[in-house]
Specification:
This protein is of the alpha+beta class and 315 residues long. It contains eight helices and 17 strands. Strands 8, 9, 12, 13, 14, 15, 16 and 17 form an eight-stranded antiparallel β-sheet that branches. It has a five-stranded antiparallel β-sheet with strand order 1-2-3-7-6. The protein has a two-stranded antiparallel sheet with strand order 4-5. A hairpin with a 2-residue loop joins strand 10 and strand 11. Helix 1 runs parallel beside helix 7. It is globular, with a radius of gyration of 19 Å. It starts with 14 loop residues before the first strand and ends with a helix. The mean pLDDT is 94.
Length: 315
């Protein structure tokens, strides 16, 4: 039985703090480095689901590492090294308190808002007559707040600037970087027969310089469609074949859960957990063009601790 990593509590030399997010455990080392352990936890509707997904953390970490390395010509990023398949060690940055969501198609949350009658999202106007999964006239940025707890909230550029969450000059640069990263992601996806539909980026400042942080172009932060058959499915009004976490949200919705108060997470069967794991591995292989190599999961905690300690000792 493949094991899933759902909790860590390491004590690394120089450790100042541990932040446990929905999926990632982030260790502050001497206010110099972040050790980000990407767990196998899975969240949807801002709720961490009760079971971990084997290999999910490895998939997310290795996809993010792949794209961080492929976009260093656009802007600097936080990564220093990946000492373990589930770990990235990087520069400690001060994060901006907004996430930059870029959308090229009307899907997911944007479609649900549009279907409900809204024609403006985060200050961006949406034309009439669009169908689910139609391309937008141009990629748009629909930022969200970064909630410490609970749901992230849609917010407009005007609200961000008025509230002082981000300064005007910095925000202009964040927009420029987000659109450039999205264009690169779409280009790389196209080469692999995929469509990058939407994604989110997080940025911070490291020694005064805007820096890309966290993950990038993973199935947790992005939605992908298969290019083949896309137009035919749109013409027939059929659902698109997609590689993203949206199918987990759809499964939860179909089973009566949307993260609302009083709702109970449906039982995650072993078969469903395996399906989710397979889908994550499928995305890794499609988007990178590389064969996914499953690492030994029998002693995950020991392996991660050993690899991180060896790297820290070498610094």
């Amino acid at each position: 039985m493949d094991q899933a990593l759902v909790k860590t509590n390491f004590q690394f030399p120089g450790q100042k703090s541990l932040y446990t997010g929905k999926v990632r455990d982030v260790y502050n080392i001497d206010d110099r480095f972040f050790v980000m352990v990407v767990s196998d936890r899975i969240s949807a509707f801002d709720v961490v689901l009760p079971k971990g997904i084997p290999y999910k953390g490895q998939v997310l970490n290795q996809i993010a590492s792949y794209f961080l390395d492929a976009t260093t010509d656009i802007l600097p990023n936080w990564k220093i090294a990946s000492p373990d398949p589930m770990v990235t060690l990087g520069k400690l940055c001060e994060p901006f308190k907004v996430e930059m969501v870029v959308r090229g198609y009307l899907a997911g949350h944007a479609w649900r808002e549009y279907k409900a009658g809204k024609r403006e999202l985060c200050g961006e106007s949406l034309p009439e007559g669009l169908r689910e999964n139609d391309p937008l006239p141009r990629p748009i940025i629909t930022p969200t707040t970064k909630a410490v707890e609970g749901h992230d909230e849609d917010i407009s550029k005007e609200q961000i600037l008025a509230s002082g969450l981000v300064g005007e000059d910095d925000y202009a640069q964040l927009e420029k970087y987000a659109l450039a990263l999205f264009a690169r992601g779409q280009e790389m996806a196209k080469e692999k027969g995929l469509i990058l539909v939407d994604t989110k980026y997080e940025f911070g400042k490291c020694q005064g310089e805007i820096t890309l942080i966290d993950e990038i172009h993973t199935p947790d932060s992005s939605r992908y469609f298969y290019s083949e058959g896309y137009e035919q499915r749109q013409e027939k009004g059929e659902p698109q074949r997609q590689l993203s976490k949206e199918f987990v949200r759809e499964w939860l919705i179909a089973n009566g859960f949307q993260g609302l108060q009083g709702q109970k997470v449906p039982e995650m069967t072993a078969d469903f957990v395996q399906q989710v794991s397979d889908r994550y591995i499928e995305l890794y292989e499609h988007i990178t063009g590389l064969k996914f190599v499953k690492t030994d999961t029998s002693r995950l905690q020991e392996r991660i601790e050993k690899n991180v300690l060896a790297f820290l000792e070498s610094r």
